[in-house]
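Hi support team,

I've been running sequence recovery on a batch of backbones for a student project. Most finish fine, but this one hangs at about 90% for roughly twenty minutes before it completes. I'm not sure whether the input is malformed or the queue is just slow. I've pasted the structure tokens below so you can try to reproduce it. Let me know if you need the job ID as well.

Thanks,
M.K.
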């Protein structure tokens, strides 16, 4: 059942932070100017957003920018570590779960598509993260960083660290600094519309659990598992 799936999967509610529009907008110019995809007609350039729903700002903003977008999420049984769309795609762009960050990056390099992932810069303080990207560099798969110049807020409050883009085969230089108009806090705050899906998911999971917990009437069998 649904709750059993979530327990077996890599989903963790602590990972659900939804990228605001201002941070999504930062990556768009670099996707449009990537020399690796100049030979693909703009209307056919397809981006997979693997940690997203239809209300994700990645999905909404990238579509508005003229890209074709495929989206998937573990809520609908599409675990990024196991799932890949059958449809052809050219980029992978999203905000992955922090708690499985190295598994995500391993999978990204295995898939072999140019990617841009929002991630907190403090992860570079971890030895295992540095070792991982050092090994990729030996394989000629150097990490690229698109670093925004402000600590973008995800909830309207002042952010405690910088979230920027960890990329591969996206940028023309390995480190690029990008200027934002504001940090998305206080009066400037605009949140992600994907937060609407949290309540839907919570209601869904609650309903499934209620049915699993409900005792069948005497003489009747319970739900099959």
């Amino acid at each position: 059942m649904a709750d059993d799936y979530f327990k077996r999967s890599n989903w963790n509610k602590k990972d659900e932070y939804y990228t605001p529009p201002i941070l999504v907008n930062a990556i768009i110019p670099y996707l449009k100017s990537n020399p690796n995809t100049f030979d693909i007609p703009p209307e056919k350039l397809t981006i997979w957003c693997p940690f997203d729903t239809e209300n994700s700002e990645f999905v909404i903003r990238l579509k508005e920018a003229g890209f074709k977008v495929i989206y998937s999420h573990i809520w609908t049984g599409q675990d990024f570590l196991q799932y890949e769309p059958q449809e052809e795609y050219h980029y992978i762009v999203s905000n992955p779960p922090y708690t499985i960050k190295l598994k995500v990056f391993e999978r990204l390099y295995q898939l072999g598509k140019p990617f841009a992932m929002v991630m907190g810069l403090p992860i570079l303080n971890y030895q295992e993260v540095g070792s991982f990207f050092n090994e990729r560099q030996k394989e000629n798969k150097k990490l690229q960083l698109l670093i925004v110049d402000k600590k973008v807020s995800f909830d309207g409050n002042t952010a405690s660290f910088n979230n920027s883009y960890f990329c591969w085969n996206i940028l023309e230089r390995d480190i690029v600094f990008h200027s934002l108009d504001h940090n998305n806090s206080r009066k400037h705050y605009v949140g992600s519309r994907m937060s609407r899906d949290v309540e839907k998911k919570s209601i869904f999971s609650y309903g499934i659990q209620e049915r699993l917990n409900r005792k069948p009437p005497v003489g009747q069998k319970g739900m099959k598992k």
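--
Follow-up from support: It reproduced on our side and the slowdown came from queue contention, not your input. The helical segments are 2-8, 21-32, 57-64, 101-111, 127-138, 196-213. No action needed from you.
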